[in-house]
Every structure is written in C-alpha cells, then in structure tokens.
Amino acid sequence: MIWMRCGQPINGSMPERPDMNTLLVLPILIPFSTGLVALFFWRQPRLQGAISVGGCVALLISSLFLFASVWQGGIQAVTMGDWPAPFGIALVADVFASMMVVLAGITGLAVAVYALANIDAQRRAFGYHTFFHILLMGVCGAFLTGDVFNLYVWFEVMLIASFVLLALGGVASQLEGAVKYVTLNLISSAFFLAAAGILYGTVGTLNMADASLRLQTLQNPWVSNLLAMLFLVAFGIKAAIFPLFFWLPASYHTPPVAVSAVFAGLLTKVGVYALVRVFTLMFTSDVGFTHAVILVLAGTTMISGVFGAMVQKDFRRILSFHIVSQIGYMIMGLGMFTPLALAGSVFYIAHHILVKTNLFLVSGVVHRLRGTFELSSLGGLYRSAPLLSVVFLIPALSLAGIPPLSGFWAKFVLVQAGINAGGYTIVAVALVGGILTLFSMTKIWGEAFWKKEESGGGPEPPGVEVWTAGERVAYYVPIIVLAALTVSIGLTVAPLMDVALRAAAQLADPAAYVAAVLAGRP
Amino acid sequence: MELVFALVIGGLYAAGIYMILRRSIVKLIIGLALLSQAANLLIFAVGRPGRGTPPIVAKDATTLLPPFSDPLPQALILTAIVISFAVTAFALILIKRAYQEVGTDDLDAMRTTDQRQHAGTP
Q1: Any idea what DSSP says for residue A10?
Q2: For A179-207, what is each residue's pLDDT tens digit?
Q3: Residues of B in contact with A368 (CB under 8 A)
Q4: What pLDDT shows up at residue A6?
Q5: Quick check: A518 and A147 in contact, CB under 8 A?
Q6: What value does the CA radius of gyration of chain B take, rounded to a whole number of Å?
Q7: What secondary structure does DSSP assign to A13-33, as a single string?
Q8: Residues 78 to 107 of B: which have CB under 8 A from any A CB?
Q9: What distances in angstroms separate CA A36 from CA A118, A137, A163, one per listed residue?
C-alpha cells in the first residue's frame, strides 16, 4: 500500500523512530503475511489453521504493544516512504484507533479459533483463512490511516475480502445476500470516492489532519457541510445507519457463523469509526447542523433496528437487526458531541464488538447442536446445554444493558451525557430502545433455551454427529473467553472507562492529533 | 471545458442511477460501473485539467504558482480505476453464479434472504 504522491521535493527528513514505525505498520503487515503464507498451505488444513491462529495471536500481541506505546507516549504518527506529512501517507494511532486495533485482534483471534471447527473443508480449501486475514488487514489499515484516500483503499481491501467471504461456498442464499451487500457497498464506495475528490478539490489535501486545519478557514460553510453530508452517506451505508441499513439484515445471516461473526463484530464498526474520525477531526465548524443531523439519524436508527428485530424469527436475523439498532447508540454520542458523550460512544463500540461477536458465535453453537437457526424449531437448550445458556445470557443481557454488565455502563454514560447536554428526547429514545432490546433477547432466550423442546422429531436432529474433543474446544473456548471479558468489563469498569475518556478527550480536541501528524512539516 | 465535464459527469451519474434502479442484475452491474466512472471523472475535473499549465516550478521561483493542472487527482483515479476494475470483475462473476444458483436475474424475485423465515447456511 505504499505509493508516492506527487508532491514537492522535500529537503530534510523526519527524525528516525524505528520502533514506532514498526509498531504502527505491524497490525497491517502481520495479517497480510499470514494470509499469504496460509495460501500456500491449502492442502494441509491443520497447518493452515495453526498459521491462521498464530497470525491472530501475533496481531493481538502487536496491537497490545501499540496500545501501550500510545497510552504512554501519546499519539504516534509515521509517514510512508519518509515523505513528510501532508504529502506522504500518514499512519496515525491515537488511543481510539489503537483500542480499535486491539479489539480487532481479540475478535480476530476468537473467530480464527472458532473457524477451525466451523468452516468446512471446501470453504477452507478455497481460501477462507487467507481472505479472513486480508479482511483483518483492511480493518486495521482503516483504523490506522490518517489519509482520506488511503482510507478509501483500505475500505476496498476490506470490501473485496468480505465479498469473497460472503459468497464463499456458493449456496444460493449466500449469493443472493452477496448481490445486495455488494451493490450497496459499491454505491457507498462511489460516494466515498466522489467525496474524497471534492475534498481534494476544495482544500487541496487528503491528509485528514491537514484537511482539518484547512476546512476551518473555508469562507462558505455550506461547502464543508456538503462534503460532510457526502461522507455521512458514504460511511452511513457502511455503518448501516437508519435509511441506509437494508443490506445488513439481508446478508449477514447467510454465510457461515465464523464469517458473519467477524462481519457483525468488526465491519460496521469500521464505518462507525470512520464517521467518528471524520466528524471529530474534519467537520466540526458547523456542529449545529451536521451533528444535529447525526443525532436525529441516531434516534431513528435505534428505533428502526429494534422494531425490525421484533418481528423476526431467525436467531441471526434478530441479531442482525440489533446491530443496526446498536449503531444508533454509537453515533448518538457522536451527535451530542461532548467529551463525555464521545467517551460513551467509544465505550459502546468496545462493548458492542465483544458482545455482538459472542452472540453470533453462540448462535453457531446452537446451530451445531440443533441444525437450525429457526427459533420456533429450537427449544430445551437450557436443559441440554446449561453452560451454553449461561454464555448466551451474559452477552444478551449485556446487549440489553442490564447492570452490572458492560452494556449497562455503555448506556449509562451515554444517558448521563445526554441529560447533561439537555437532549431529553434522544435519552428517552435510547432507553425505549434498551427495553425493546431486552424484549428481543428474552424472546431468543424463551424460544431457544427456556421452552420445552418439541418432541417427536426423533432422538437426534439431522446433521448432528458426536462432538470431537477438538471441536468442542474450538467452539466453546472463544465464546467463554469473550463472555468472561464482558463480565470483567462490567465488574471492573474503570480501566475501559479510562481508555474511553482519554480517547474522547483526544477526539474532542484534535489539536494533539494534528500536531502529531504534521510534526515533520517543513 | 468545465461545463462539458459537468454535463458529462451529471449524465453518467443519472445513467448509472437509472440502470441501478432497473430490475435486471446485469443492468445493475452496468449501473455500478457507470457510477464509479462518474466518480473518476469528477476527481479528474477537480484537478483543473487544461493545456499549457504544467505543474512545474519555474526556474527562478521557489513555489508552484497557480494556475496549474494538478497531477495528483490523476494518480488517485489510476488507483480508483484499478480497484473498480477488480470489483466489477468480481461482481460479474457473482451475478453469473447468483443467476445459476437462484435461477433468476430479476432483482424483485431475489427476496428470500429478506423474508422473515429463512434458514441460512451454518
């Protein structure tokens, strides 16, 4: 991804900081090389699986190092090819970005382990592991880049990988879901590309920090607002906000669980991340207009998502509609645009990634046990699989915001920020959304776990063989670890809250970010 | 010059959106391709293309003085073209496979994944 921009020749280079360079680039290089290496071992599934899991472990470790160095040393920035900042492509890690990379590492590792049992031999042979890692590379690249056009490229890397993962296997429903997913995402990309072009035409730069400075000096606020709306549509489609979310519930339930879990956990959150980044860094000159629009969209997204979920009868389709609704909470904090509200958004994103990935993974175990996602044909799981029931209840109640789990604190901060800012309507909408979420989760609980199993269907449902020990480990360890993380975030809320508050402080005052990126400016 | 560009770009966007709204999946892909071409041309127009104004710093000057044709948008378009080429190729294969598996090329008939009761793959 290193190519040069035509710019003026530069005398004098940045001071050498090799460790920083490496740490910032590693979350992109590790998945890339893992994907490549995995490609060569397509005949040896065990080795390929081990490479995939090993790559995710390395990604997680490197992301933790990156996070530690950002936490101690402040915002880190590096430019590709040693071209100083406005000309070269910058990689930037602030607390928010590095936290997202850590979450990508956690999700990636959990799903990679789960995929060892969940992905069939055919899909593995056609490159599941490779595309999974390319997807992670795109996600990490999008989190770390400080350049609008580079962000576009990372989005495309991510999209291509997700297209393949979605269609891999060639089942009719997958292909049909993929047509919808591909169409809407390509439209979004066209909008994004146009927005990037107009941004360059307006301010003459694509570096986000540089653009943030230059957009403040624009004479006509409506040029900036027009750009803001273009970016809102482009990222809004990717993030699945209110009028633009229809591709998500049409496609996320069609691929294997190990694919839809990573989509549910990470992909829409990249859209949210891009929204937060752009609307805290670049488009802050007319908050009364842009962020008010976002706030209205946040409310409508929450409500339309939960209402959509209420009528669904399929385990994963309910969860898919809840992703939409939860996106509303994440951008609610952005819409209110106070430091506390942004902290709420950051906390919510972190909590949501863990919880939602976990719920999808649990749905896969349910499918493995019973051979269906249909709630009406499920039942009795509480009796036959008590451990699974507990592991479902933890993220489900957390999603609904029951104390003391992580979702409660996330909603608590957002509501607190809303009351402080006087936004009583959005607070009311958020609380109603929470109650309706609880309704959906109790519906899954009641139907799949609590009610008596339909009898007469034979002793063993079709497609269920005996669990091998390895399969059991691969299915259960990720969901138990993720559930434990959810509980521990809920019980010791201070560390993550510290992270969220610091990330929000950096987002609310972009001066440090701009200074870090443009440090090497001639 | 700029008026011509504006008209062409607007026409491409209109044609692309029209094609996307048709029911055939082949026309859908054509529409998507037109949209990305429109975006590419938009970026090209943004770089103030014109003759006789190369982006070269004059011999005794230290900075580049406007008016000049900005070459950077063309570098961006090059990247975007490559990406849209790959994506369109993928989309073409996808619609062919979708046509074979689902058995229709009518978007209005492709609604099984949006129905309330639908079993996905494991």
Answers
A1: -
A2: 999 999 999 999 999 999 999 988 888 99
A3: 122
A4: 37
A5: no
A6: 21
A7: -PPP-HHHHHHHHHHHHHHHH
A8: 79-80, 83, 86-87, 90-91, 94-95, 97-98, 101-102, 107
A9: 22, 12, 18
In angstroms, rounded to a whole number, what is the distance separating the alpha carbons of residues B27 and B37? 15
Is-contact A337 A287, C-beta < 8 A? yes
Interval A422-434: pLDDT, tens: 889 999 999 999 9
Q: What is the mean pLDDT of residues A386-398?
A: 91
- Report chain A residues whose CB lies below 8 A from the CB of B122: 118, 256-257, 364, 367-368, 371
What is the C-alpha to C-alpha distance for residues B12 and A521, in angstroms, rounded to an integer? 39
pLDDT tens digit string along B26-62? 999 999 999 999 999 999 988 877 777 777 887 887 8
Which parts of A59-155 are beta strand (E)? 76-79, 90-93
Interface contact B110-A374, CB threshold 8 A:
no
CA-nearest residue to B122 within chain A is A256
Task: Flag the least confident range among A185-194, A216-225, A329-338, A482-491.
Answer: A216-225
Tell me which residue has tokens 């993962």: A165
Cβ atoms within 10 A of the Cβ of B50, count?
11
Q: Per the structure block, which two tokens stand in for B99?
A: 């046509």
Say if residues A349 and A100 touch (Cβ distance below 8 Å): yes
Alpha carbon B119 to chain centroid, angstroms:
34
Domain B2-52+68-109 has CATH 3.40.50.2000: no
A27 prior amide bond cis, ω within 30? no
Residue-wise pLDDT tens digits, A110-122: 999 999 988 888 8
Name the burial class of residue B1, with classes exposed (0-12), middle (13-18) and buried (19+) by CB atoms within 10 angstroms of its CB.
exposed
Query: SS3 for A90?
Result: strand
Whole-number Cα distances in Å, A416 to A131, A336, A340, A344, A499: 41, 11, 8, 9, 18
* A92, β-bridge pairs: A77
Spans of all domains in chain B: 2-52+68-109
Distance CA A312, CA B69 (A): 55
State the DSSP H helix or E strand holding residue A452, giving kind and residue range, or none if neither. Answer: none
**Residue A407 structure tokens:** 């979702």
A467 touches chain B (CB under 8 A): no
Amino acid of residue A40: F
Give the DSSP H/E element, type plus range, for residue A220.
none
Q: Which H or E run contains A277?
A: helix A268-281
Stretch (H or E) spanning B33? helix B25-46
- DSSP conformational letter for A521: -
Contact yes or no for B43 and A254 at CB 8 A: no
Give the length of chain B: 122
